[in-house]
């Protein structure tokens, strides 16, 4: 277990406008490794550590054919330990392995299993087949042995397989890592056919002539609705890329308060912040405060022993004459939340929630 504790800080949640996955830092190669399908459609993503800190990262390499991508993150503290990508361990049937990642976007998780087949052939490529639990969100995460050696990268492309997980073997990962020194800060594409490097937008590979999707070099557009919401986030001086947590879902911190914005019931834009956990005492005073205090367009409420500040608006209002007011109310909710969570602590003895960035309280 010491191995897992040492390596946990080198495994990150990868957040994009289209979903989330997992990636891990390679100390030797100085890049974050993940699946291509995790970052597909994105040129910039955020990587999130276990302390809820997010860092902007650029996709500097993508190989759709091998489902591998490399990221460079700005201002990311370099972890002391990372998985070992330089070893000669051979994977065999019945070997024990560990899968690390963020299934379904949940907090860091480790699952244990054994190798069912070290060279399962699927679609002309070999994969490590395992009985370890692998779910959406694990994609891009490291599969290691008990020594902390990288055996492969989780890939969840085969969703129809029950009770089976698959990983891209280390051999193919090492082949891609050999070109690290040739990469720049801008996106480079690995040709899905001949594997040669393509540094500029092209409709075909200059080496083998294979067709290349030109949109690989472009950021996939987000919806007009998302652009409007991200305008409110930008008004808080927060890069919207750092707030994205999937399709039309945003989660970020303003000071200590966690802010969530998402579509509710297909008709409403919902913004909410879990402010505090209820204390053992002074409950009557808190209830009275919540019932009597005028918070304008926002609403204070209690659910599951937590105090929430929320705001709900019909999506159509974002396309009406009230658009500017809605965006202002979204930004104001975040500012109010960061004030109120501290107020409930000081005045009523409440506690921060597990979602808060408590060191900033």
Produce a short descriptive summary.
This protein has 361 residues and is of the alpha+beta class. Helix content is 19%, strand content 34%.
Break the fold down into its secondary structure elements and pairings.
Blueprint: H1 2-7, E1 11-15, E2 20-26, E3 31-34, H2 36-39, E4 44-48, E5 54-63, E6 68-73, E7 96-101, E8 109-122, E9 125-130, E10 142-144, E11 150-155, E12 165-169, H3 170-177, E13 188-190, E14 197-198, H4 224-234, H5 240-243, E15 249-254, E16 257-264, E17 268-277, H6 283-292, E18 299-303, E19 306-314, H7 323-348, E20 351-352
Helix pairs in contact: 4-7
Write up this protein.
A hairpin with a 4-residue loop joins strand 1 (11-15) and strand 2. This protein has helices spanning 2-7, 36-39, 170-177, 224-234, 240-243, 283-292, 323-348; strands spanning 11-15, 20-26, 31-34, 44-48, 54-63, 68-73, 96-101, 109-122, 125-130, 142-144, 150-155, 165-169, 188-190, 197-198, 249-254, 257-264, 268-277, 299-303, 306-314, 351-352. It has 3 domains: 2-81 and 175-217, Trypsin-like serine proteases (Thrombin, subunit H), CATH 2.40.10.10; 96-169, Trypsin-like serine proteases (Thrombin, subunit H, Beta Barrel), CATH 2.40.10.10; 224-360, Yope Regulator, Chain: A. The strands form 3 sheets. The chain has a 6-stranded antiparallel beta barrel with strand order 1-2-3-6-5-4. A 6-stranded antiparallel barrel has the order 7-8-9-12-11-10. With 361 residues, it is α+β, with helices and mostly antiparallel strands. The mean pLDDT is 90. It is built from 7 helices and 20 strands.
